[in-house]
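User: Hey, my collaborator sent me this sequence without any context and asked if I could get a structure. I don't really work with proteins. Can you help?
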Amino acid sequence: MTIHKYMTISKIFETFPHKSQKIAAMMTSFGLQCVGCGAATYETLEAGTLGHGMTEGQLEALIGRLNDILAEEQDLSKIMLTPRAAEKFIEIGKEEGLEKPMLRFGDQPGGCSGFEYVLDFSEGKTERDEVFESHGVEIHVDRGSLERLRGTEIDYTDGLRGAGFKVSNPNARSSCGCGNSQSY
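Assistant: No problem. I've predicted the 3D structure and written it out in structure-token form, which is a compact way to encode the shape of the chain:
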């Protein structure tokens, strides 16, 4: 199944919950700031984009990008970095004097939606850790949070709205408006 212009915003998110964070980010980057607005979920993708002054060409470009997201392979059993995120993490680690930096990834209670992500340098695997490898980076995750985090992809973005690591977690059911916390 693919996304088309006659799908409602709510139907898109209901149909593809495991890709909802990436879909929402893409829609927002195209100027659909109302993705999280309860009043807009009944609109079709076409009505939402054209109602925001976009052209048919921009609508078709958005649909193409959304379907590219759906086509991306996603291993829901692992925790992964994109190549760009791995490169940036290694670069930052080397600036900190670490020869082969390892990532400590987890979550902790906090924020307005319940949990906040934690990304830091790891000093090494503990007996409570599950270890993943992604694009040359070893990722350490405490087994206590593994089921909430399994399937997560960590990307790095650098744009007009700032730079930083962006977490896309298929297990997150909602997030706060600022994007810094989530609930499961």
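In plain terms: Residues 80-183 form a domain with the Hypothetical Protein Aq_1857; Chain: A; fold (CATH 2.60.300.12). You can pass these tokens on to your collaborator as they are.
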